[in-house]
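Lab manual, section 2.4: Encoding a predicted structure.

Procedure: take the sequence of the chain (102 residues), apply the prediction step described in section 2.3, and record the output as C-alpha cells. A sample record is shown.
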Amino acid sequence: MIRRERLTVTVDPALIKAGQAAVAAGYAESVSAWVNLALAERAAKERRLAAMRDAIAAYEAKAGEISLEELSAQGRADRESAIVVRGKPNVSGRGRRRRRAA
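Recorded output:
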C-alpha cells in the first residue's frame, strides 16, 4: 500500500463540485483520489514540458536558434499534412465553410 500524507488546500467551489460529481459518477473512489489523480497528471505534464524544453535547448545548442520563419513554415507543413478526422478540410485557411441555406 502506498503511504499517503494529509494535505490541506484551498480549492475553488466549482472544482470541489466537479470532484464530487466525478465520485458520484464512479470516475473516482473519493474526492481525495480525484485530486491525487489531478496532481499526478499535472506533475507528468510538467515533466513532459521540461523534457521538451531540454530537447529544444539541446537542438538549438547544436543547430542554432529556431527562427520564427522556421516555426511558421513547420506550422504550414503540419496543417497541410494533417488528416481531417471530422468535418471537411480547411482549404481556404479562413476557418470552416458555411453551408448554404437550402
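Check your result against the sample. The longest helix spans residues 31-63.
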